[in-house]
Design brief:
By secondary structure, the protein is mainly alpha-helical. Helix content is 44%, strand content 10%. The strands form two sheets. It has a two-stranded parallel sheet. Strands 3-4 form a two-stranded antiparallel sheet.
Amino acid sequence: MAVPDRGFAEAVLAVVDDIPAGHVMTYGDVAAMLGSRGARAVGQVMAYYGSSSPWWRVLRAGGHPPRGLAARALPYYDAEGTPLITTTSEDGYRVDYAAARWRP
């Protein structure tokens, strides 16, 4: 995996930092806000640089939490009042994307 361009990374993190508590965007939403179709590039930015940003507010398609981070994300969702839906998936839940999606 290549290290994301610094300018793009800064732009992604600025968008993520602006997502209000209790709201979410998908990787694709963040990319679209930046005029890009690079949802995977947004994911790379979050993997490399997103630990100090509200990373739990950026979801996979369908409202699923970041891969491998569902258990770590759940307390944040609970604290912020993010609407969740119980599922039979490996994670056991997903975010109610229709209710929580942030549209700046």
